[in-house]
Amino acid sequence: MNSTGLRILSALRSGDKEIREISETLGVSYTRTTEIVKHLIEEGFLKRTDGSIASADTLHAVLYRRLADRYDMGKLLADSRENIATAILFADDFSEIQRRTGLSYWTVKRGLSAIMETGAVREHEKKYSLIEDPDLRLFLRSLNESREKRRVEPYADVIYSSVDIVLKKILHGKPAKGVLTAFSAFWRFGVEIHPVQDYYIQRDEDPSIEEVLVHALIASTSPVEMTDCAVLLAKNLDRINRGEARSTAGRFDVESLLLDLETYVRGLTVAHPDRFLPWREYEEKARLYDVEPGSLLPREAYPDFFRLLGEQLPAPIDLYLFGGEAMRIRGLKRATKDIDVALEDADAFRRLEETLRRLGYTPLGGEPSEADKRLEASGIYVSGSYPRVDVFVKRICGAFTLSENMKRRTEHREMSNLRLHIISNEDLFLLKSITERGGDIIDMTILAKAPGFDWKTVYAELVYQEENTNRNYSRNLLEAIELVEQTGVKSPIYDRLVNRSLDQAIVEVIDVKGSASIREVRDLVNYPDYRIRSRVTRLVKEGILAAGGNGSYRKAP
């Protein structure tokens, strides 16, 4: 709110006043005062009474007067702080508050500091929340709704809004600003439905298929609508860019919804089954749009493929199976599109490659996709009869090695010359955290929910791999776990991972710069001063860092 407007509201708490009297009391020109008063009347804070101006009797005007007895309303609402305070209704993370408001880093930081001085907002572990004050929450919601209504048609229902995005729904046939999206744009991608309301995004260019899908997820209010989203995804699996879809979902804070949708389409157990229709009803609906859900699942590899492979191998080899096929064997996955295997030496790789060629496999041709490049596989082989085979020798995805503990945790199957070792769920979880493939977060969620899953084993293997390879993977695992936790899973190693990844980031910054202060580290790793200072103190005690001059730190000799 305008700071002068807040002063006007404060001046009128003592009683009705004429505009000239308000102008003289505040030392503001008559013209400017008239302009601000008119705006406050339009917003419902003030009203005219017999030539004077008085406080209105609207909901947010009454609530404002109550709150003014408890808070410094200038610090709470002046200028950009109104936007920041209302954003906290919907977001508790600093970056999300900044995104919703469209304000600069320092504007948000200063605004939050001022608002917290009023006692209306508290911060705990980098999360911001309003205190338990029903009047405050109702007032901010009323303000937000009033602001949204001024941006859209009076008959529009706002689904989502931020500084630069408005999603809304309007009774079918009513005129509206913007272009069709969500369910109203499904027809563009082969799924023609007829919603009773039209869905719009207020901009000029048509949304991409990834945006249409995410907008529909935001707009969904029933299992029927969520299942319609599943049909759109299944119909356009080859067309939708999964990375772009996930990025778009992240901007709207609906990543968990998208993960659930992907899981559902693949016929797996979802985190929130009540969001969708039963699988059989989805199958029936999908077939109306020429989608056969079962056809999306590739042929199973175990046991037939591995039995055939063992019979054809000229000499025994140890083959370590990880990825989706290992999960399918344990009943954690309906099917998988590829088989991921690891070998310990080049001789085993040669024997496996020769055998795969005899079975009709050929090396993957053409320019590999970016996802395939990131795998850093020793060989990728495809066949018209069986799933693709991704082969890794010594290192998996250019990162982890087959440790002795990993090998001890495997399940074993003997098939002629094939000694098949199925990697444990804990090691599968860790391996999937570094692959950056679309479905791996879904798989990690399923693995974490499996009976007997041991988080301590995951952490211990991570530490071993980092020490053995002299590389840092803690941040990869941390980011993956943060996505997994959005599905309701809680990881007991999360806090340890935060500290470990922060320690690594601090050491990396200081290693690159030679020496750095707490502030210089903070600017690069985006953590609060107190958290960085605490970790630096510990790193000094452990002999990893040493204090330098002028408050800087360097690596210990």
What do you see in this structure?
With 557 residues, the protein is an alpha+beta fold. The chain folds into four domains: 3-145, Winged helix-like DNA-binding domain superfamily/Winged helix DNA-binding domain (Arc Repressor Mutant, subunit A); 159-293, no CATH class; 304-452, 2-Layer Sandwich (Beta Polymerase, domain 2); 494-555, Arc Repressor Mutant, subunit A (Orthogonal Bundle), CATH 1.10.10.10. The protein is built from 26 helices and 20 strands. β12 (379-382) and β13 (388-393) form a beta hairpin. The mean pLDDT is 89.
The residue ranges in which pLDDT falls below 50 over 5 or more consecutive positions are: none
CATH architecture group name of the largest domain? 2-Layer Sandwich
Structure classification: alpha+beta
CATH class of the largest domain, please? Answer: Alpha Beta
Strand proportion, as a percent range, falls in 5-15%
Give a nutshell description of this structure.
By secondary structure, this protein is of the alpha+beta class.
Q: Top keywords for this entry?
A:
four-stranded antiparallel beta sheet; 48% helix; flat; Arc Repressor Mutant, subunit A; 26 helices; alpha+beta; seven-stranded mixed beta sheet; 557 residues; Beta Polymerase, domain 2; 4 domains
Question: In terms of topology, how is this protein built?
Answer:
Elements: H1 3-11, H2 19-26, H3 30-42, E1 46-49, E2 52-55, H4 59-68, H5 73-77, H6 81-87, H7 94-101, H8 105-117, E3 121-124, E4 127-130, H9 134-151, E5 157-161, E6 166-171, E7 179-180, E8 197-201, H10 209-219, H11 223-235, H12 242-251, H13 255-265, H14 279-287, H15 304-312, E9 317-322, H16 324-329, E10 338-343, H17 346-358, E11 362-363, H18 370-375, E12 379-382, E13 388-393, E14 395-396, E15 400-401, H19 404-408, E16 411-415, E17 418-422, H20 425-432, H21 440-449, H22 455-469, H23 474-485, H24 494-513, E18 516-517, H25 518-525, H26 529-541, E19 545-547, E20 552-555
Parallel strand pairs: 9-17, 10-13
Antiparallel strand pairs: 1-2, 3-4, 5-6, 6-8, 7-8, 9-10, 11-12, 12-13, 14-15, 16-17, 18-20, 19-20
